[in-house]
Amino acid sequence: MEPSGAESAGADRPSAEQIEKLLQQAQRRRAIVRSVFGTLGVLVVVAAAMTLVFSLWLPVLQVQRGSMTPTLSDGDIIVFVTTGQIRRGDIVAFHHGNQVLVKRVIAVGGDSVDIDDDGAVFLNSEPLPEPYVSGLYAGDRTTALPCRVPENQFFVLGDHRQTSIDSRSADIGLVHRDQMIGRALIRIWPLNDFLVMN
122 and 170: one domain? Predict the structure, then answer.
């Protein structure tokens, strides 16, 4: 004898235990999904905050060309800091046209700079000791020298004077504070040459 329709429907109906298990599984799935989306949300907020910090206060730049050797090499990755005072001797990054250049600050507002025919630098009429340069070189001195640096401007030179285009050239000239990205803080690449710079 075949079971009636009512008996057949009762046999297909899940038990209370099965319903409870299904509800628990659904709740676990919802908890996992909430946890994943919550974690992703936190990661997005942290990434956005870090991007803001690094773009506004700690820009990271890769050195291009060799104008700062031997101090910095082509391909070095440097963290710069946008806050604080820029001083003589600081390595800075600045905008020049559509380029970002990295040079060393030789003179700040109020200083007088001169460079003789051999490439020796004189700061406020005194010879400037420069143990970081790879050799003296007068270069393209189309900037009028001696030069009195106005306030909020900087006279910058590359450490590799033979290849550097810098404040000696009228094409670059003095760098205004508004052009400054920041001063070098840490070299983070290559890892085997990690260096705190200030």
Answer: yes
